[in-house]
Design goal:
Length: 254
């Protein structure tokens, strides 16, 4: 053990290093209190504190009767709401960044014209961005925007504001429709999201309405291994259950 550093902190650093290096993967079991006591010659109190703080900080999950496991750090988005991805990431305490791949004026054809309820050839803006969380890409945003709804779209710097925030500032969305599908991404999406060859993606197909008409149509691609969609519904007139006895679904091991 290193002089001057508390023993519990050294145990924490020991486990964090194994997680950071990839030696311990999400869902892998980490050493128990007894194993840490024996291997590191520390007291049970020290081992308990190290595991407890690692749990509080989100590195591991302690499952009663089974042991302690490396947490799954998949990013989450609310299935039932339309949210700004930058806000989602910041609420998780992480840093959002984006890279604009395409920002152009196009003429709506085929399914784009159909989705936006416009004539073939109508002007639309095409936005293609890669959103990252702490430097890791988690979403490719492929969005079409009705040109008459957002005439300044081409002059907007989407490195400093997300399309969602920009569009909401123009006029709040009145309605949204979305469909979630599992997909085999093409090579471009796979490269932009740094996905493995056999990895599936989650695609959210979303259309938003304002002023009584559809104004945007988007496909939001996410790496299946690093992203999940969650939702919580409470019927009108009822309050949300906050009892500690209720186990949230995302905390259940599959």
């Amino acid at each position: 053990m290193t002089a001057g550093k508390p023993l519990y902190q050294e145990l924490k650093d020991f486990i964090i290093e194994k997680i950071s290096s990839g030696e311990l993967q999400p869902s892998d079991r980490v050493p128990s209190e007894n194993e840490l006591v024996e291997a590191k010659s520390v007291s049970r109190m020290t081992a308990n504190r190290a595991l407890r703080e690692l749990t509080d900080e989100g590195y591991v999950e302690r499952v009663a009767g089974r042991g302690t496991f490396v947490s799954d750090y998949r990013s989450r988005s609310d299935l039932l709401e339309v949210q700004n991805i930058a806000d989602e990431i910041m609420r998780r305490g992480n840093t959002h960044s984006s890279c604009v791949v395409r920002q152009s004026l196009q003429h709506a054809r085929g399914e784009i014209a159909k989705a936006l309820h416009v004539e073939q050839g109508a002007d639309v803006f095409h936005l293609l961005l890669v959103h990252s969380e702490n430097g890791t890409p988690i979403q490719v945003e492929d969005r079409y925007v009705l040109a008459t709804f957002a005439p300044d779209c081409l002059e907007t710097n989407f490195d400093s504001i997300t399309p969602s925030a920009y569009l909401t500032n123009i006029a709040p969305f009145q309605e949204a429709e979305q469909v979630v599908r599992a997909s085999r991404p093409n090579s471009a999406i796979r490269k932009q999201l740094e996905m493995g060859d056999d990895e599936a993606s989650l695609v959210v197909i979303r259309r938003t309405w304002s002023e009584g008409r559809p104004v945007t149509f988007a496909r939001l691609h996410h790496p299946g291994s690093r992203y999940e969609l969650t939702g919580h519904y409470t019927p009108p007139g009822l309050s949300r259950t906050t009892s500690a006895d209720v186990v949230q679904l995302e905390n259940l091991r599959q």
